[in-house]
Write a structure and sequence with these properties.
34% strand; globular; alpha+beta; eleven-stranded antiparallel beta sheet; 13-stranded mixed beta sheet
């Protein structure tokens, strides 16, 4: 289903802004918090002037066409952008479902966007073209509501059921059916009062400043994994696969143990090869590192590879069309990906919704940034639904994968609890 923009043309205007505090602190309450922030930089937004929703395998292409129509109707005359940095001008915040058949993929065009890069900040307002010009001032946000007391309960897939699914997947891989599958499970946190997404966002940004803290339509998280960034002709991706938690390995040398783990190196190679194979037909140049590095976070460490590419000038592409080509990668699906996603549907038992789907923003030129929706919760009233998943290969050990998923859930649990 598509909800069209307003019948009148929309005006967009970006102005410099003096912003002394933190970017996330400007979000007002109950206005649909939107966020893509890392190390204090990025963009946040609120309000809504247009929305797109869809499902199905063509959802990325449909979203791209819809966004182009919105952009074509914008009144962006001379002087509409006084800043001209990545993230200025009109933006749509985006969050897509993991599975083709699942409803809920969404693009939201906010009324107000506030951004920061380095020492420069700005405010973008998107309003009906016939509305009076506004001065570009920030509202005074109301206090952030802490979560209060939380009660935890099993979600659709308990830890016990998750362990059984991992064991079943290991058996199928040992029989040679596939090489890797990513399985996930969920957990419910129920509060005594409606949850404030700003509280979870701030907690995640404080604990995980090098991750991208995101919020789109009730999905709130902090992902360490950049699926794709497009600026001009340059395409970038950060692939994460292969995980250990603090204290793993001899003498607590987690990084050394991770680099030396054949299981994790193999899992990582599947993910990198998957992304490279999807991108290669769409780009003129592709650079993949010879070996991964280690990304260390407070709760886990990951094998990490930064992939770079250049678009072919003869075959221009938007971020949304590129995302449609690469999702899902082996990092969140498995290898071979069609076999892995079929096995996920068969044995996981979880409606992932937008967990492990692309999340981020796209600008009027079709560029932008999108990560993979990991370390997240879907907020609805008093309930937060937390997700975590692990890459499973033939020598995975079910109890170890349950512990790894619990370590990944720590990010959201601790941030929800304050």
């Amino acid at each position: 289903m598509t909800v069209a923009p307003a019948s009148t043309a929309l005006r967009v205007r970006t102005r410099p802004l003096r912003l002394d505090g933190r970017l996330l602190d400007v979000l007002p309450a109950d206005a649909g918090a939107l966020s893509w922030v890392r190390d204090g930089e990025g963009v946040v937004g609120w309000g809504e002037v247009a929305r797109f929703t869809a499902s199905g395998p063509e959802r990325f292409a449909e979203a791209d066409r819809w966004w182009r129509r919105v952009v074509d109707r914008l009144d962006a005359g001379a002087g509409y952008d006084d800043v001209r940095l990545p993230g200025t001008g009109a933006l749509a915040f985006a969050s897509f479902t993991f599975a083709d058949g699942c409803p809920g993929s969404v693009l939201v065009v906010p009324q107000v966007i506030v951004g920061r890069r380095g020492h420069r900040a700005w405010i973008t307002e998107i309003t009906p073209a016939d509305a009076p010009e506004t001065p570009g001032r920030l509202p005074v946000p109301s206090p952030v509501r802490p979560s209060g007391r939380l009660r935890y309960a099993d979600g659709q897939v308990s830890a016990h059921r998750y362990r059984a699914a991992v064991a079943a997947a290991v058996g199928r891989m040992r029989d040679g059916e596939l090489e890797k599958v990513v399985l996930a499970h969920d957990l419910l946190a129920v509060a005594d009062r409606p949850l404030d997404p700003r509280f979870l966002l701030r907690g995640l940004a404080r604990r995980y400043p090098t991750c991208w803290s995101y919020a789109v339509d009730g999905l709130v998280g902090a992902t360490p994994e950049l699926l794709l960034r497009l600026r001009g002709r340059t395409v970038e991706s950060r692939v994460l696969a292969g995980t250990m938690w603090p204290g793993s390995g001899p003498d607590g040398d987690t990084a050394g143990a991770l680099i030396g783990s054949s299981k994790d190196r193999r899992e990582h190679a599947y993910a990198v090869d998957s992304l490279a194979a999807s991108l290669r037909p769409l780009v003129a140049e592709l650079h993949v590192p010879d070996a991964p590095s280690v990304l260390t976070l407070p709760n886990v460490s990951h094998l990490s590879s930064d992939v770079h590419a250049r678009l072919d000038p003869a075959r221009p592409a938007s971020l949304l069309t590129l995302i449609g080509a690469v999702h899902p990668t082996a990092a969140v699906g498995g290898t071979p990906t069609p076999d892995a996603t079929a096995l996920i549907s068969e044995i996981e038992g979880l409606d992932r919704g937008r967990y492990a789907g692309p999340v981020g923003w796209v600008d009027a030129e079709g560029a932008g940034e999108m990560g993979i929706a990991l370390r997240c919760a879907e907020l609805q009233g008093r309930t937060a639904r937390l997700f975590a998943g692990c890459g499973i290969v033939a020598d995975s050990e079910p109890d170890g994968e349950v512990r790894e998923a619990a370590a990944k859930m720590r990010a959201v649990r601790e941030s929800l609890e304050g």
